[in-house]
Amino acid sequence: MKADIVIKNISQLVTMEGPDRPRIKEEMKNIGIIENGILAVSGEEIIYVGEGELPRHIDIDERTIIIDGSGKTVTPGLIDPHTHLVHGGSRENELAMKLNGMKYMDILRAGGGILSTVRATQNASFEELYKKAEKSLDTMLEFGITTVEAKSGYGLNIETELKQLRVAKELNEKHPIDVVSTFMGAHAVPIEYKSNAEEFVEIIIKDMIPRVAEEKLAEFCDVFCEEGIFTVDQTRRILNAARKHGMLPRVHADEIEPFGGAELAAELEAVSADHLVAASETGMKIMAEKGVIADLLPATSFNLANGKFANARRMIELGVPVALSTDYNPGSSPTENIQLVMYFASLILRMTPEEVFTAVTINSACSIKRENNIGSIKKGKKADIVVFDSPNINYIIYHFGINHVDMVFKNGKIVVEKGRTKGTF
Ligand code: IZC
Ligand code: ZN
Question: What sign has the CA pseudo-torsion 138, 140, 142, 145?
């Protein structure tokens, strides 16, 4: 078999070897590092992973691109399973409010926060939303992200929700990053339904979910289940309706107050429960029993600046599979920098570098149901690969705040070189 690309002499090749399922407890530390590693790619696929030299059955010729991986760390393409990628406007005006002591929920209650992004998104054209999200995807790609989940939820009316999801769909088709869509009509209660949230819940269930499903615009459905947003009962009804229409449930759970979100995610056997800063011990335990993935978002916690973070150590101890995300959004986490998230996960959530890499590769692949194609470097999987200009994984975490990416391969194609995207795709 002929190789189109060979990366050899790799100082640390992080394979994530092992089964294509969520990794828990000690498994999160076994990331299958090969020193002096080598890998070969043919077309869109990985055809060989090993140590030292290529075996005889893999041929190379003058067209094979050979890359010297000495002094480099090579990992699976990073997967970001929780973002609010497509939106209009920005919220830097909230910085001064925050510095004056106003809380995230106070800003939302005053008609700002999510609701200000809803206005900006309703007023933006398809092209404006597309261009803005495309720029963020370019940045994500440069940080090593090759697959991203993207939620709607800044429309809160059917036209704008569909507009957001259609933008995500077109980006998935045109941009090298794979974009996996989630319908999140239940992100906030629109001002016009402030005194009648139930009516809005009915609209989501009766009008929006069937329409999104009919147009096949989302694989998942998510709800912001939080004190003052959607109740546990409303979340349950919305997610059950979504499941009937083929969308798998995920939940924004216990981000700010302990509200029973983790328990509900376990009851519904949701794919993931995200945030979990205020999750209860019982909630975490039953998530472990049901195999619900905890998708942790420490950049958001850092940026909310209230000193509260998810208890990742306890979750790992209990056997909850942990994934990590940027939560990229214009309010609580305006950053595409997953490497900074990895740093926070390590230094603040006390996850080891090995656990962090598990969380941004195979566990996040599981969180978006892509574990059979991506999330590890293994023969037959898609050639989504990152080359870090770092001699080992510890260095990537330790030397924080900068971008360590040298090259990114997506579907076997070079899409980032010397840390920069190769222009318009
Ligand atoms: O726009 O503030 N938490 N949703 C739930 C967000 C944060 C995004 C935002
Ligand atoms: Zn979110």
Answer: negative
Q: Give me the pLDDT at residue 425, please.
A: 63
Determine the residue of 82, 84, 328, 335 to mutate for testing ligand 1's pocket, defined as the one with the most ligand atoms within 8 A of the Cβ atom: 84
Confidence at residue 424, expressed as pLDDT on a 0 to 100 scale: 60
Domain 5-75+375-421, CATH class in plain words:
mainly beta
Assess whether the C-beta atom of 346 lies below 6 angstroms from ligand 1: no
Decide whether any atom of ligand 1 lies within 6 Å of the 224 Cβ: yes
Ligand 1, atom nearest to 104 Cα: 2
The bound ligand whose nearest atom lies closest to the alpha carbon of 120 is 1
Q: How far is the CA of 151 from the centre of ligand 2 (A)?
A: 8
What does the domain layout of the chain look like in residue ranges? 5-75+375-421, 79-367
State pTM to two decimals.
0.98
The minimum-distance atom of ligand 1 relative to the CA of 154 is 1
- The answer to whether domain 79-367 has CATH 3.40.50.10860 is no
